[in-house]
Amino acid sequence: MTDVIYLDNAATTFPKPPEIYDFMIKFYRESGVNPGRTGCDMALEAEKMIQETRQLLTKFFGAKGDYNRLVFSYNASDSLNIIINGVLKKGDHVISTVMEHNSVLRPLNHFEKDGKITIDLAGADKKGLVDPAEVKKLIRKNTRLVIINHGSNVIGSVQPAKEIGAICREHGILFAIDAAQTAGMIPINMEELNVDILAFTGHKSLLGPTGIGGMYVREGVEVKPMRFGGTGVRSAYPYHLEEYPWRLECGTPNVLGIAGLHAGQLWIAEQGLEQIRKHEMRLAQKLVDGLWAIEGVTVYCPKKMAGRIPVISFNVNGFESADVGLQLDVDHNIITRTGLHCAPKVHETLGTDKAGTTRLSIGPFNTEPQIAKTISAVQEIAKTGLERAGKNKIVYEPSIGT
Fold this sequence. Notes:
Elements: E1 5-6, H1 18-31, H2 41-60, E2 70-73, H3 76-87, E3 92-97, H4 102-113, E4 117-122, H5 132-138, E5 143-149, H6 161-171, E6 174-178, H7 190-193, E7 197-201, E8 213-217, H8 255-271, H9 273-292, E9 297-299, E10 311-316, H10 321-332, E11 334-335, E12 337-339, H11 344-350, E13 357-361, H12 368-392
Helix pairs in contact: 1-8, 2-8, 3-4, 5-6, 9-12, 10-12
């Protein structure tokens, strides 16, 4: 693995910092038991770690309320399903955007298909940004929820959440964000962004393992529980508890996953979120500069990466995206992601909905030599692609903006 250039961090960060692996293994060996169910020292230690992680993440997301409203789940998709199922009722109207991941689009589409809700999707410009004024225009009397992807997993655009959230507050509408790509990548302050509910996953920039995520539900906002079962608390009560976090959690929690999130919070605090972001964005800018300079390569992001996250999509004339990804993997040992990235509406906006794009996404352990090798590899592929383009007629449109 030492020779692999891993540029699929938008899917999951890899590798994790060594400290995170070490903490998870040590904690699970010593205290990997069921928390909150017995009074033994190991169970108390597990419960303490879980509660401390709730506190760390509540502070990390700038939430001012009770840390028990930080609820753990499997991942962002799981959280978004809980949110959508837990706040909507028959007759509600929902506003979302064309920049969404299927973790938002599919639950909403199922609700609409079943005749429960109506949906409007705000459009985006060529840089992948949604105009808050367009969101405002879509508001109806029965609009219950505005839910947006905070950061695009295809082209790295970051939405103006603060402005959209202010509009929602003004109209008494719930505002939720999918922070799968931005949590741990950029500073998030729920109070400043006017966010009511935030969904996150642990295995991306929060640097935890797969299978752990969660949400924070602002005080005064309620999400109806959709799952019921054991909590280890008030066992004689015949119904699921109303109090957070048990309201939205049941059964034995993912202790190992939460331990990874805990260690991730400590590592981010030690390194400094600003320093991590500065490193990643510096590499992203070098990568974008290099790709823009290659003849026959179409880059789907502006030349300047300011205000975005380090996620870059491109195509090469003469090849479909899957062919480019395969060549980068087999011939150059570079790991990417190709296709539609579970975000079909984004690709419709870009005009890449037939074959998608090749995506490169940078993490904290990528280096300048890796970026230079990647640019060189794409240049080599593009040279062959130019010869094929005339024969195969696979020619992509110019880049989306400067």
